[in-house]
Design goal:
This protein has strands at 6-13, 20-25, 30-39, 48-54, 57-58, 64-66, 76-79, 86-87, 92-97, 107-114. It has 115 residues and is an all-beta fold. The protein has one domain (6-31, 42-114). The protein is globular, with a radius of gyration of 14 Å.
Length: 115
C-alpha cells in the first residue's frame, strides 16, 4: 500500500537496444524507493541492462536487467534502490541503457519517490 507521501514519475527510453541516456526531472524532493520498467515489444540477442544516476552518481541497487529470453510486450521488471537515491526538487534522474540487446524497443520507467 502506498502512502500519501509517495509520488510517481514516468520517463521513457526510446530504444533500449541502443546505448545512451535519457533524463526525467523530479518535481519534488524525496527518496527513490522503487523503479519499474515495462517494454513495448520483445528484445533479442542479449539482455538489456538499465542503470540510473542522480547528479552523476549511480543509484545503489537501482539497476534493472530486462531478460531477452521470453521477453514480450508489457513485461515488467523492477529494482529496489538502497543508497544514493535521494533526489532534490528540480534534479534530473539519468536513465542509462547499455544497448546490449537487439531489436528496437521502447521502455517506460516509473520511479516511486517518497517525500
Amino acid at each position: 500500500m502506498r502512502t500519501l507521501n509517495d509520488y510517481f514519475i514516468v520517463g521513457k527510453i526510446h530504444n533500449i537496444s541502443s546505448a545512451g541516456s535519457s533524463f526525467v526531472v523530479a518535481p519534488d524532493g524525496g527518496k527513490i524507493i522503487k523503479i519499474y520498467s515495462t517494454i513495448k515489444n520483445a528484445i533479442t540477442t542479449a539482455d538489456a541492462g538499465l542503470s540510473f544516476e542522480i547528479g552523476g552518481v549511480a543509484v545503489t541497487n537501482g539497476g534493472i536487467t530486462i531478460t531477452q529470453s521470453g521477453s514480450a510486450s508489457g513485461d515488467v521488471d523492477s529494482s529496489t534502490p538502497s543508497g544514493a537515491n535521494d533526489i532534490a526538487e528540480g534534479q534530473a534522474i539519468e536513465m542509462i541503457t547499455d544497448g546490449a540487446s537487439a531489436t528496437s524497443c521502447e521502455c517506460e520507467i516509473t520511479f516511486v519517490i517518497r517525500r
